[in-house]
Amino acid sequence: MRTSRSRTSLTLGATVTLALLAGLPMSTAAMAADPTVNCRPVPSAENPAVVRQVYTQAINDGADARVMLATFETAWVESHFNNCSNGDLDSVGVFQQRASWGSVDARETVATAAHAFLIRAKNADATAGATVTAGQIAQKVQASANPSAYDQSAGKANALIATYSTAFAAMARTPSGNGYYLLTRDGGVRPHGTAPTFGDARGQSYFTGQTAVALVVTTSGNGYWILSEAGGVYGYGDAQSYGAAAGQSYFTGQRAVALVPNAAGNGYWIVAAAGGVYSYGGAAFFGAAAGQSYFNGQSAVGLTRSPGGKGYWILAASGGIYSYGDAPFFGSAGGQPYFAGQRAVALTTTASGHGYWVASASGGVYSYGDAGFFGSAAGQSYFNNQTATGLIRSAGGSGYWIPAASGGVYAYGDAPFLGAA
Predict the structure, then answer these.
(1) Intervals of the chain under pLDDT 50
(2) How far is CA 16 from CA 24, 30, 112, 115, 387, in A?
(3) Domain limits of the chain?
(4) What is the fold of 167-413?
(5) Of the residues 8, 95, 149, 292, which has the maximum number of CB atoms within 10 A of its CB?
(6) Which tens digits make up the pLDDT trace of 232-253?
(7) Furthest CA-CA distance within the chain
């Protein structure tokens, strides 16, 4: 795969932090354990900092709703979300991992311990049927002598998720660029600047138990769609419904990651994490990555329409970019040393359509084609322990915003800062 020269603000001083957030294997010598507490007895309350670190790592690792719940059930049962310096036998850390999981420093570094748990939980989840509970996923990972404890803690775990994950899934700007929206994972829409509001899914009975993953503004700016992880599409204002993947047999067991309107505005595509592309309304089908040998073991995180409207790019978490229809290829981060251990979260085209940016979860920005570099959040102290969820081009085209799962918004170039959560 061809690659173009890219630019990023990653610095050597940020390597350890970024590698840790991305789940990059690290030596014990390079790792510094987080502060610990005595867990004999286990503290009755959670440590907020630990909960936020675990949640951030789960988002960074692409945990779906079941894996997220399994993670929270486990951390609550094992330590009440405290980074324990002791436990049963040689168990330590928030997940009470035994020596077989790694060094003491690794197990007492919250992000590293969470990543280790999440990898195993995601593997268990991938082969589990729809009736398998989050607690059963947790038990497959932990092999506890009290296997029912995880499911019994589901209520507490869900409450903690609701409390600490005021997490933001996406950001979208208005056509004028003088306003933007922040989408919470529970379906809430928060307008900033001159962005008008048309309603949202938060607290609605039709959205119960769902997780919002994308918000897309209509061409007129008088409405928007909310996409749920289950493939549901919810239109507000003048956003028309052309169909949804939720509840369809072809989407069973899949996870939606993006919704993109076609150029004519009379349809849209939904892309699944497996690389499948589903066309609705007038959106034409130009191909998909699902089932292709070149996509084996990969996960899609987004789809971006080509400037000509007769094609699109699929972005993989690895940074790989796959072109379909008339979408030109300008290079990708996949397989590049500068992207090792990172996770891509967004691909955004330039105003001319002759280039694009790729954003990583750590806040890095990589430029291809005629995409100018206006700065990035990676390695910056203001972005410590945060996770980027996207990159949105400014209306002027000479800047962009990087939104974070925390609700932070970071403006670069000519992108105006209009507020954050």
Answers:
(1) 1-31
(2) 9, 7, 12, 15, 15
(3) 31-163, 167-413
(4) Methylamine Dehydrogenase; Chain H (2.130.10)
(5) 95
(6) 999 999 999 999 999 999 999 8
(7) 63
